[in-house]
């Protein structure tokens, strides 16, 4: 017996609704830098993504190192969290926008495809794509 197909069927509604996907970007911060220069451009990234219809920035923050023996931590990455319904379009837009915003080498775009964590990494003016994420 097949599942009902009227508008009250939860299965049918779920299948018709686009799945929201999560992507995050890690932008490395240079050692001993007091302030992250990219932090000033997060709103610009959010605006450009929205204008391209390629995702929505839902948050950002900083990642720090584990505490050293003296308890101090250092800033490692600026992180930007994004939702999308089109993984490939968002990845493409992010690569273009991030490069235009002059992010440093080592910038990473993290995502999941077919239950596997993957990433794209920016190195010396080009992107290495679909790498396993650790």
Write structural notes for this entry.
- It contains 3 helices and 6 strands.
- It has about 130 residues and is of the alpha+beta class.
- It has one domain: Alpha-Beta Plaits.
- The model has no long low-confidence stretch (mean pLDDT about 85).
Précis, in short:
This protein has helices at about 10-15, 40-50, 85-100, and strands at about 20-30, 55-65, 75-85, 110-115, 115-125, 125-130. With about 130 residues, it is α+β, with helices and mostly antiparallel strands.
Helix-strand category = alpha+beta
Order of helices and strands: HEHEEHEEE
Strand order of the largest sheet: 2-3-1-4-5-6
The top-level CATH class is Alpha Beta
The biggest sheet amounts to: 6 strands, antiparallel
Shape: globular
Query: From the 3D coordinates, which CATH architecture would you assign?
Result: 2-Layer Sandwich
Oligomeric state of shown chains: single chain
Distance between the termini: 44 Å
- Compute the number of helices: 3
CATH topology: Alpha-Beta Plaits
Task: Report Rg.
Answer: 18 Å
What portion of residues is helical?
10-25%
Q: How many domain regions?
A: 1
* Beta content: 35-45%
> Runs with pLDDT <50, length 5+?
none
Question: What order do the helices and strands come in, and which of them pair?
Answer:
Elements: H1 10-16, E1 21-28, H2 42-51, E2 56-64, E3 75-84, H3 87-100, E4 108-113, E5 116-123, E6 126-132
Antiparallel strand pairs: 1-3, 1-4, 2-3, 4-5, 5-6
């Amino acid at each position: 017996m097949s599942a009902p197909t009227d508008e009250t069927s939860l299965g049918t509604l779920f299948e018709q609704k686009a799945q929201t996907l999560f992507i995050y970007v890690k932008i490395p911060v240079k050692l001993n830098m007091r302030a992250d220069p990219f932090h000033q451009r997060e709103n610009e990234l959010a605006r450009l993504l929205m204008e391209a219809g390629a995702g929505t920035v839902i948050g950002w923050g900083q990642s720090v190192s584990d505490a050293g023996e003296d308890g101090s931590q250092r800033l490692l990455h600026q992180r930007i969290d994004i939702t999308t319904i089109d993984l490939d379009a968002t990845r493409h837009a992010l690569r273009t926008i991030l490069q235009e915003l002059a992010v440093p080498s080592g910038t990473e775009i993290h995502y999941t495809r077919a239950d596997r964590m993957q990433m794209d990494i920016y190195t010396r003016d080009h992107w290495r794509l679909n790498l396993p994420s650790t």
